[in-house]
């Protein structure tokens, strides 16, 4: 999956909501300037010299289980094993992440072992999705690179940036301060979108939260993530997230803290 299309897996599930207000197609020169200025508006870990980091992820299983309807075996057998599981994150220079885990506790039977695998696997998928999404805004950028093909429409107070990513149509809505407000994607496999919130920093806009969902032939999923930062060696890095996964009529709240950072810089 291309770095820009990660958001497809976390987008919102409706068809593209095109603005029906009067719009003005910016000429090529103006479009290039708009995108250039937008790219310069965001906080960049690469500009701050980051090459790689490693850290531990610490899910708050007690809080997670408070939001789950679980049985006695889940509370008395599964939860203690999850509390002893350790997750390790490695983020590479291109924004790719590797999530691994360790556990020293052996499940008492295959039924609990399968539940443990499912829970840990789902947590790893959630963490992978978070880092894929987050890295697109702080290491890479969803905005088109110089020389690529795209169009910019001035909607009066907002810009609509449109381009293709393989078979997918991508539409990014920015306000006139170049904050990305919404990313919408359609492809033959799914319909998706994501809304974002930003914090101002002296070094550019920093992703503070996003809400996303996706609809495919096999079902739909919605997700919201709030991000708290900590400064480590002059870099703004995640200190904690609160991910809320909505599926069907239920939801699961997953708080995760990040600690023990090891950083490589230029």
Question: How does the SSE layout of this entry go?
Answer:
Elements: E1 24-25, H1 28-39, E2 50-59, H2 61-66, H3 72-83, E3 86-91, E4 97-102, H4 110-138, E5 151-154, E6 158-165, E7 168-175, E8 180-186, E9 190-201, E10 204-216, E11 219-232, E12 235-247, E13 250-265
Antiparallel strand pairs: 1-5, 2-3, 2-13, 3-4, 5-6, 6-7, 7-8, 8-9, 9-10, 10-11, 11-12, 12-13
Please tell me about this protein's structure.
The longest helix is centred in the middle third of the chain and has 29 residues, at 110-138. The chain has one domain. It has helices at residues 28-39, 61-66, 72-83, 110-138; strands spanning 24-25, 50-59, 86-91, 97-102, 151-154, 158-165, 168-175, 180-186, 190-201, 204-216, 219-232, 235-247, 250-265. By secondary structure, it is an alpha+beta fold. The chain is built from four helices and 13 strands. A hairpin with a 2-residue loop joins strand 12 (235-247) and strand 13 (250-265).
Distance between the termini: 28 Å
How confident overall, as mean pLDDT? 85
Structural class: alpha+beta
H/E element order: EHEHHEEHEEEEEEEEE
Strand order of the largest sheet: 1-5-6-7-8-9-10-11-12-13-2-3-4
Overall morphology: globular
Can you summarize this structure?
The protein is α+β, with helices and mostly antiparallel strands and 266 residues long. It has helices at 28-39, 61-66, 72-83, 110-138, and strands spanning 24-25, 50-59, 86-91, 97-102, 151-154, 158-165, 168-175, 180-186, 190-201, 204-216, 219-232, 235-247, 250-265. A hairpin with a 4-residue loop joins strand 7 and strand 8.
């Amino acid at each position: 999956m291309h770095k820009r299309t990660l958001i497809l897996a976390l987008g919102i599930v409706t068809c593209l909501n095109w603005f029906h207000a009067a719009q003005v197609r910016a000429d090529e020169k103006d479009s290039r300037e708009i995108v250039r200025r937008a790219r310069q508006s965001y906080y960049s870990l690469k500009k701050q010299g980051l090459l790689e980091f490693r850290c531990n992820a610490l899910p708050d299983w007690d809080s997670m289980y408070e939001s789950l309807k679980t049985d006695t075996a889940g509370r008395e057998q599964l939860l203690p094993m999850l509390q002893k599981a350790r997750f390790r994150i490695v983020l590479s220079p291109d924004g790719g992440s590797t999530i691994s885990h360790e556990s020293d506790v052996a499940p008492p039977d295959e039924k609990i072992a399968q539940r443990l695998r499912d829970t840990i696997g789902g947590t790893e998928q959630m963490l992978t999705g978070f880092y894929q999404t987050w890295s697109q805004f702080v290491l890479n950028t969803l905005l088109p690179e110089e020389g690529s093909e795209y169009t910019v429409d001035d909607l009066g107070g907002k810009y609509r940036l449109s381009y293709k990513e393989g078979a997918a149509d991508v539409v990014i809505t920015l306000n006139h301060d170049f904050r990305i407000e919404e990313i919408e994607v359609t492809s033959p496999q799914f319909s998706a979108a994501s809304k974002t919130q930003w914090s101002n920093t002296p070094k550019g806009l920093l992703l503070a939260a996003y809400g996303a969902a996706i609809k495919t032939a096999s079902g739909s999923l919605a997700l919201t993530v709030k991000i708290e930062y900590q400064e480590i060696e002059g870099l703004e890095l995640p200190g904690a997230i609160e991910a809320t996964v909505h599926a069907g009529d239920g939801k699961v709240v997953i708080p995760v803290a990040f600690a023990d950072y090891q950083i490589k810089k230029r």
